[in-house]
User: What shape does this take?
Amino acid sequence: MSRAAFYLLCGLLLVNSPAYAGLFTDDDARARIQQLEARIVKLEQRLAEAEDQNKSVVRSMLDLQMQLEQQMSELHKLQGRNEELVNSLQDAEKRQKDFYVDLDSRIRQLEAGGAAKPQLGTPDVKRDINPVGENRAFESAYGLYKAENYQSAAIAFRDFLRQFPQSLHEANVYYWMGNAYFLSRDFANSLDSYQNLLGKYQDHPRAPEALLNMAECQLELKAKNNAKKTLKQIIAEFPGSDAADKAKKRLSILK
Assistant: This one.
């Protein structure tokens, strides 16, 4: 081979070598790019799936939070009502003790020949009934109430009013009969008893408590609007009383 031919062959090799090397590098880069693109697609799919799962978890947590808030609200309402009932029962027990002491004193006076003083709001009428028998009948009915035999007590109070229609105990009978019916969950007759008491004896000392119990009966009988009116009546007619304070609390729960 001549020197000129050898130089020509070397020159061709030098020219072709970079082109071949460049072609190999581009193919490898394309393969790597395709692999990366495939991985990116998979990662995007996983990310989308994770976002969907997160959204589902967030919705579930929000639903649970709403349910919890509703249950807490109901619990607060029940606690408030339970507190009102406990206070009412405590007040009723105290009034029962005071009344029983007063009743015992009246009975002793009557048995000793003394005359019983008429109660506030009782009409001034002549009565031919034996006061000792009348008081014993009342004591018997009240004894059933005190023994927590409320259904029998309610019947005994009702029969008492039929037997002694002009009794000096009429106002108290209406009140305790209303309580007996209420504790027997006979809310319709309980409401009727309190209404009779307030219709005949508006100035009776237990009028505020009777109105408060009336409101509870109306709530049990699904007459919410009437209950609200009764509670507002207590606040208006007996401001500053314990019953008015309870009525305000009860109204705040009902709103």
In short: Confidence is low (pLDDT under 50) at residues 17-24, 111-128. The CA atoms of residues 84 and 246 lie 7 Å apart. The chain has eight helices and no strands.
